Amino acid sequence: MGAEVIYGKQLATEIREDMKQEAAELREKGIIPGLTVVLIGDDPASLSYVRGKQKASEKIGLASNLIELPENTSEVELLDLIGQLNQDGEVHGILVQLPLPDHIDDQKVIEAIEPQKDVDGFHPINIGRMMTGQDTFYPCTPYGILVMLKRARIALEGRHVVIIGRSNLVGKPVGQLLLNEHATVTHCHSRTENLQHHTRHADIVIVAVGKPAFITGDDIKEGAVVIDVGVNRVDGKLTGDVDFDSVKEKASHVTPVPKGVGPMTITMLLSNTIQAAKSIHNVT
Ligand code: NAP
């Protein structure tokens, strides 16, 4: 029979319909949630990501602004721009597309963004709030995974989640969010010994490594839930970190790539932007 496939794309469409309504209600109050994306340089992958974010924002009625700057923009110039965006009343969310050129310190830039406008959820203040279980902007991919699990009615409390990956972008924050939901969380990484021992005991396996077919059906227990975060290109085709066919035979639920976690990531960015506009204008 095989696992139930959790299509993030479908969920994302449903959530975006609700957000369209929410954005329209804010417009009636004279508030147009505004997202400004800053892109340095002309990396085609980054450009395609930011265009996707812009298109999705406009579709649900947000004001979206893309600021494109040349590769040789200095750190001071970028920090000045962020300072101006922090003060701009029409800008509710600021996103600086990473990675930045080597001569700019990513962390300095992230920390320059006003935490109230940090819709990527990377500012240390927002990470600290997440760690201490407070309501805040959560990083978009981990937040998308959490919403996906909840919408698919996957129980989290008391269940053993094994996360492969410990990046600041995905692995660490998704672990924290699931710990906040009372899951028992194990993080695995490149130094983990006997990885299969861990994955075979997991109720939920989250794979965020960046290697195609890293996890197969042989690595999981019968009935496990498997979330594939990976984005890889093999022979020009998009693929995740999970060997979908063998995992589908054994798991109870699995997410596909494409149409899985990716669309949820952008959706949570839009959600954070609406929340930013509401909190800046004191709308409940
Ligand atoms: P990353 O920073 O490269 O982290 C990869 C993690 O995998 C690291 O923690 C690394 O361990 C671990 N790892 C590498 N080889 C391993 C091995 N042999 N055994 C166990 N662990 C191993 O990547 P990331 O930013 O977290 O992204 C992970 C994947 O998700 C990428 O494919 C990325 O493109 C994708 N992604 C997708 C979305 C989306 O919206 N769908 C968003 C973000 C990222 P160490 O820490 O020990 O090096």
3D architecture notes:
By secondary structure, this protein is α/β, with parallel strands linked by helices. The protein is 42% helix and 16% strand. It is built from ten helices and eleven strands. The protein has helices at 8-28, 44-59, 75-87, 106-112, 124-131, 140-151, 171-180, 195-200, 244-250, 261-280; strands at 4-5, 34-40, 63-69, 93-96, 160-164, 184-188, 204-207, 225-228, 232-234, 237-239, 253-254. The strands form three sheets. The chain has a six-stranded parallel β-sheet, sandwiched between helices. A hairpin with a 2-residue loop joins strand 9 and strand 10. The relative contact order is 0.17. It binds NADP nicotinamide-adenine-dinucleotide phosphate. The site of NADP nicotinamide-adenine-dinucleotide phosphate has 24 residues, from helix 10.
Mean pLDDT: 97
First-to-last CA distance: 45 Å
CATH superfamily of the largest domain: NAD(P)-binding Rossmann-like Domain
Tally of strands: 11
Shape, per Cα inertia axes: globular
Helix content: 40-55%
SSE order: EHEHEHEHHHEHEHEEEEHEH
Low-confidence stretches: none
Can you list the ligands bound to this structure? Answer: NADP nicotinamide-adenine-dinucleotide phosphate
Q: Can you tell me the CATH topology of the largest domain?
A: Rossmann fold
Report the total helices: 10
Which structural class fits the helix and strand makeup? alpha/beta
Strand order of the largest sheet: 1-11-8-7-5-6
CATH-level-2 architecture of the largest domain: 3-Layer(aba) Sandwich
Number of domains: 2
Rg from Cα: 19 Å
